[in-house]
């Protein structure tokens, strides 16, 4: 357990506008960080026990296989459509994804962390998980590189090799070089881990006209080669935010490496409560994609990125004892989106920082040559500020970061205003003339996709108490297009809809969940999208997007 104290500046004695929370800040803000759930050693022990059960041994007998990813699974990840799927507390089930190289299949093993030998379920999946750190290293060795070689999963990280009988080969797309070689001379390869063969892709010479031998043609930072945390590394903390003796916020926070969904979801929140009243059951970023519109560059044209590969950034301070993946910073944590806009750092995980009356949670992620900043801010007045930052590096063998491209980030916000059910959503639209804060509120009756519009916002309320949180779009959140679909969706909660699953392309497919179900007086989920043009040839200006979520009325 760790408590951090920071003196706050005094706030105004009365709200500036109707509905704004009044907080007296004479007392210091404090934060308490405590470990929740199992350690990495306990998780690995449970997986080992499950692998040694007769059921799993029979399924994997005489095969060459590797465990690629292990995650704890919450009930909403395991539930199906129409199932409430919600439960309190930490997940006790785990899922191990195993690739069977002999038979070309993905084997999913679900077990109970407390008794893995007695309760194991086995299934198969046609969707291959992302490459593990060990796989990338093995691919480089198959390609003839030494054990000290520098190797990365390129974009896209996997090459589709599915056969008519439903089996597949495991083909990794990598960039590799020896540590003493010029970084600009990295070799781009396809490495088949199933038959241990190597191919040179047609894109291996891409971008040669847009770069010199050793320098980028834009202002992107060079790749620092900072440490990466393997996916599936456990790390969940119970965070309590106080002001004096008053508990303002409580929540469970999962580090990105352990976040849910097929591609991860950045810093993930669960059971978020303000002044001992429920606000969010779960909040995260399960979908992140990018599109290159300029033809002939060899980039993209689209990618689906991952949000669970923690990458080094700067967080001077102390690790929280006994809570892996969490550190309290003594000065603001910085990533590639902050001056001096350089790559890397020595800390991986979630940074916790007190900024006045606000607690900041921050992490940096890597997906190929992209760098992403996942951030949540919790203010004493009840405001929640989710933020996502976009950066990139000049990567050996590719200059795609220097080609203008569009990022699209999708937050999933599972609101539980005071209760899981009994919530409603209303849309505010301003009057055609007059002050923008005057307008009409209309109930959202059925599941729907809605566009942003000037001064439009959405309110989620408890139908019995009237307590409300409003979602206000960010001024830097861009516009949707044919690939970066949508701005906001209102859905009825259904278990299993934590991401859009295996999709036929890299676009977001949230609209498949809009099935004309009622969202009146029930459990509701909002998906919110932001869109960003990333142009490293004109790098100045904000690279950060996100909405603001504020309480309305009294929450004392």
UniProtKB/TrEMBL annotation:
<keyword id="KW-0732">Signal</keyword>
<dbReference type="InterPro" id="IPR036460">
    <property type="entry name" value="Cu_amine_oxidase_C_sf"/>
</dbReference>
<dbReference type="GO" id="GO:0005507">
    <property type="term" value="F:copper ion binding"/>
</dbReference>
<feature type="region of interest" description="Disordered">
    <location>
        <begin position="201"/>
        <end position="232"/>
    </location>
</feature>
<dbReference type="GO" id="GO:0048038">
    <property type="term" value="F:quinone binding"/>
</dbReference>
<feature type="signal peptide">
    <location>
        <begin position="1"/>
        <end position="19"/>
    </location>
</feature>
<protein>
    <submittedName>
        <fullName>Copper amine oxidase</fullName>
    </submittedName>
</protein>
<dbReference type="GO" id="GO:0008131">
    <property type="term" value="F:primary methylamine oxidase activity"/>
</dbReference>
<dbReference type="GO" id="GO:0009308">
    <property type="term" value="P:amine metabolic process"/>
</dbReference>
<feature type="compositionally biased region" description="Polar residues">
    <location>
        <begin position="201"/>
        <end position="213"/>
    </location>
</feature>
């Amino acid at each position: 357990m760790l408590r951090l104290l920071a003196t706050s500046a005094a706030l105004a004695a009365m709200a500036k506008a109707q509905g704004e929370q009044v907080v007296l800040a004479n007392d210091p803000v404090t934060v308490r960080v405590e470990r929740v759930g199992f350690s990495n050693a306990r998780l690995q022990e449970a997986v080992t026990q499950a692998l040694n059960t007769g059921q799993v041994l029979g399924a994997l007998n005489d095969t060459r296989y590797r465990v690629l990813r292990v995650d704890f699974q919450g009930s909403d990840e395991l539930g199906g459509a129409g199932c409430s799927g919600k439960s309190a507390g930490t997940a006790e089930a785990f899922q191990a994804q195993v690739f069977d190289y002999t038979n070309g299949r993905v084997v999913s093993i679900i077990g109970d962390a407390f008794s893995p030998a007695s309760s194991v379920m086995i299934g198969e999946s046609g969707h291959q998980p992302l490459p593990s750190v060990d796989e990338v290293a093995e691919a480089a060795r198959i390609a003839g590189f030494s054990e000290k070689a520098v190797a990365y999963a390129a974009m896209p990280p996997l090459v589709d090799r599915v056969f008519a009988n439903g089996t597949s080969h495991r083909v990794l797309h990598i960039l590799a070089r020896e540590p003493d070689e010029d970084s600009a001379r990295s070799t781009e390869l396809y490495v088949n881990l199933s038959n241990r063969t190597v191919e040179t892709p047609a894109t291996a010479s891409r971008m040669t006209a847009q770069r010199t031998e050793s320098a980028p043609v834009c202002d992107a930072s060079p790749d620092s080669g900072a440490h990466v945390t393997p996916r599936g590394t456990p790390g969940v903390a119970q965070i309590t935010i106080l002001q004096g003796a008053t508990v303002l916020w409580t929540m469970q926070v999962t580090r990105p490496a352990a976040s849910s969904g097929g591609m991860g979801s950045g810093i993930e929140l669960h059971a978020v409560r303000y002044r001992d009243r429920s606000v969010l059951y779960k909040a995260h970023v399960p979908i992140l994609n990018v599109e290159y519109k300029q033809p002939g560059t060899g980039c993209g044209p689209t990618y689906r990125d991952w949000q669970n590969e923690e990458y080094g950034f700067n967080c001077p301070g102390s690790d929280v004892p006994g809570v892996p993946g969490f550190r309290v910073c003594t000065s603001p944590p910085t990533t590639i989106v902050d001056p001096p806009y350089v790559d890397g750092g020595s800390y991986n995980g979630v940074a916790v920082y007190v900024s006045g009356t606000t607690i900041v949670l921050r992490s940096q992620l890597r997906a190929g040559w992209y760098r992403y900043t996942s951030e949540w801010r919790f203010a004493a007045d009840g405001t929640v500020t989710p933020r996502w930052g976009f950066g990139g590096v000049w990567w050996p063998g590719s200059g795609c970061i220097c080609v203008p491209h569009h990022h699209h980030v999708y937050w999933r916000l599972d609101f539980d205003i005071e209760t899981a059910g009994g919530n409603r959503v209303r849309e505010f639209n301003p009057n055609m003339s007059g002050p923008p804060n005057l307008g009409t509120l209309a109930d959202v009756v059925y599941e729907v996709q809605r566009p942003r519009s000037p001064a439009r916002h959405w309110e989620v309320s408890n139908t019995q108490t009237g307590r409300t949180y409003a979602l206000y779009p960010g001024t830097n959140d861009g516009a949707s297009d044919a690939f970066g679909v949508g701005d906001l969706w209102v859905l009825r909660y259904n278990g299993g809809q934590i991401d859009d699953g295996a999709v036929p392309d890299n676009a977001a497919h949230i609209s498949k969940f809009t099935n004309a179900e009622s969202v009146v007086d029930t459990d509701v989920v909002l998906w919110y999208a932001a869109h960003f043009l990333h142009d490293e040839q004109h790098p100045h200006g904000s690279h950060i997007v996100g909405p603001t979520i504020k309480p309305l009325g009294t929450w004392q």
